Amino acid sequence: MHTILRTMGTYVTPYFDRRVFVVAILGFFCGLPLLLTGSTLAFWLAKDGVSLTKVGLIGVSSLPFTLKFLWSPLVDRVSLPILTPLLGRRKSWFFLSQVLLAILLYALGQCSPSENLFLVALLAMGVSFSAATHLIVLFAYQAERLGRTQYGAGEAMSMFGYRMGILLAGAGALYFATYLHWGTVYEIMALVEATGLIFLLIIEEPTYHPSKEALWREEKAKEYLQAHPHLAGWKASVLSWSYGAFVCPFSDFIHRHKGWLSCLVLMFVYKLGDSLIGNMTNIFYDHVGFSKQEIANASKIFGMWATIFGGFVGGILTMRWGMMKSLFYGALFHGFATFCYLFVLNAGHNMPILYLTVALEHVTGGMRVTALFAYQLTLCNTAYAATQLALLSSFVEMSRTFFSTLSGWLVDHVGWSLFYTLAAFASVPALVVVFYLASLEGASLSFWKKLPSQDP
Fold first, then answer.
1. In sequence order, which ranges of 168-256 are alpha helices (DSSP H)?
2. Per-residue pLDDT for 448 more than 70?
3. How does DSSP classify residue 442?
4. How far from 171 is each of 177, 183, 302, 341, 362, CA to CA, in Å?
5. Most buried one in 136, 343, 388, 420, CB count within 10 A?
6. What is the pLDDT of residue 297?
7. Is pLDDT larger for residue 232 or for residue 355?
8. Among 192, 186, 184, 172, which residue's Cα sits nearest to residue 293?
9. 1.20.1250.20, 3.40.30.10, 3.40.50.2000, 2.40.40.20: which CATH number matches 257-445?
């Protein structure tokens, strides 16, 4: 019994560390804007009379999440005037992005989508840019503030906070919209985001430990440039800094992974099905005949807890099976679960069928997201973690941006039944890429054969 309690304590104690709680709260403020430019905004547009094709096209506003790797080196290395001396290197970028989020969400609340859709799309793009920047800083903050033994607990709590933010922006927004104007709902969300500024003032700035490898590479590049008269002086300093900030993280990734291109392809296709159905889910439930409260209860609240549960299951499977096997079966199970939407369509307003579908889709979704993020961590060099994680997650977001843009057009032209059939088969490309990567690593995908414990 003593051994069991001691083992449990080993896994539970990290969750009570103050630094882990800080990461959870930061995750909340990162998660809040996501649906406010995604499915929640899509639902508002649809109820305001905007066509489904245009609703789908508004998904392009999430493009900054896809391209955040382009400016992540700047966030990692540039000091902001006034803010950085006052708050510190990481907190200053947190503060700036959060101020912009509060202002832009409030501005969205002042718009009428049916009258000025372009302005709504422009503001949504600004929200996504600020939220993507916020997420980049969170990556770096976790890496610098937490010790390696706390990464697991920190990531679990970060995702928990992230889901809480999504819950407020999803179910919370739908509940508020039942009694309030949509503009007022967005004003409330802006106020919630603004409260994070107070929290930022009281948290600690992480200690900066520059990468010795990056400094060495910059110094070598500077020496080379100084040896060429037309590149010497300030030009050498600027070019060597740019080399260390923008080139080294990506060249390091390519040189360390034989299947680096396949890894990037996997990031793009692994959540392809989610990318298709994400912004259409609320609209689909409304089409079938469910009320706002029923959608909020099933899809947002129950679905969120099902996703969190699936995340814990995914963590256990990752430890037991290894990365490749968890990625493979996570995608396979989620593909089968997506077929359940066809049962909802045929059953009509049937609450048991709705909850069963939400449970299966969200649990399997949580399983594969945990496997995917854990796999991303194994691909990254800690010297360039923020930029490389931004690169990998950008490919995931690229898929969401591209395919969510097509979702409304697909529904308009092929109908809900074929749309969800296509979404279910969208897991096939991921299965093919995982199978190839597993063959490169010599990893078994047999369902019954347990992988060796040393599999990363």
1. 173-179, 182-202, 212-226, 234-242, 248-256
2. no
3. T
4. 10, 16, 10, 20, 15
5. 136
6. 86
7. 355
8. 172
9. 1.20.1250.20
Mean of the per-residue pLDDT values of the chain = 82
**What's the CA gap between 152 and 208, in Å, rounded?**
21
The answer to whether the beta carbons of residues 384 and 211 sit under 8 Å apart is: yes
Give the burial class of 210: count Cβ atoms within 10 A of its Cβ; 0-12 exposed, 13-18 middle, 19 or more buried.
exposed
Q: Kindly report whether the global pTM for this prediction surpasses the value 0.70.
A: yes
Beta strands in 155-277 (DSSP E): none
pLDDT tier for residue 265 given thresholds of 50, 70 and 90: very high
Q: Which residues contact 22 (CB under 8 A, 6 or more apart)?
A: 145, 203, 204
pLDDT in tens, 32-43: 998 898 888 888
Distance CA 162, CA 315 (A): 17
Q: Compute CA distances 61 → 42, 170, 405, 408, whole Å.
A: 11, 18, 10, 15
What confidence tier does 451 reach under pLDDT thresholds 50, 70, 90?
very low
Alpha carbons 203 and 199: distance in angstroms, whole number: 7
CB 150 within 8 A of CB 14: yes
Half-sphere exposure of 412 (CA within 13 A, CB side): 12
By CB atoms closer than 10 A (0-12, 13-18, 19+), residue 335 is: buried
How much of the chain, in percent, has pLDDT values that exceed 70? 86
- Return the residue matching tokens 């194994």: 378
Cα–Cα dist 133/60, whole Å: 17
Where along the chain do the CATH 1.20.1250.20 domains lie?
1-206, 257-445
**CA distance linking residue 290 with residue 385, whole number of Å:** 43
Contacting residues for 415 by C-beta, under 8 A, at least 6 apart? none
The count of other CB atoms within 10 Å of the CB of residue 82 is: 9
CATH of domain 1-206: 1.20.1250.20
Could you tell me the CA-to-CA distances from 246 to 47, 214, 255 in Å, in that order? 43, 11, 15
Assign 110 to helix, strand or coil: coil
Per-residue pLDDT tens for 377-427? 778 776 777 788 788 888 887 887 778 778 888 888 888 889 999 989 999
